TetR family transcriptional regulator (Nonomuraea coxensis DSM 45129), 103 residues
Amino acid sequence: MIASERFERAAVLGVAVAEEARRLLSRHLDPAAAGEEAADGTVLVDVPYPDAAVVTALLDVAAECFGERGGSVEETRQAALETLLQLAGFDDESRLNSGGARG
């Protein structure tokens, strides 16, 4: 396999991982809780088990791939989540943050 094929497959995998993270977060986003944003616009999404285990694994893999670092494991996962959401087309202006995620 030539390098360009490997990069293409890695890109497809990266987007698939980002989409799966987006899907799981969207699935568990409570529109009522989305109204309770922090001052910085952060919204808490409670992801129950077993989906929480999948999200944690996705964030750990993403953090390793993106070279994310933080002061704690949670900060590292948060940085990876922000990068994943950008990759999936979500950023600070995302409708995911306000409870209107696309399905």
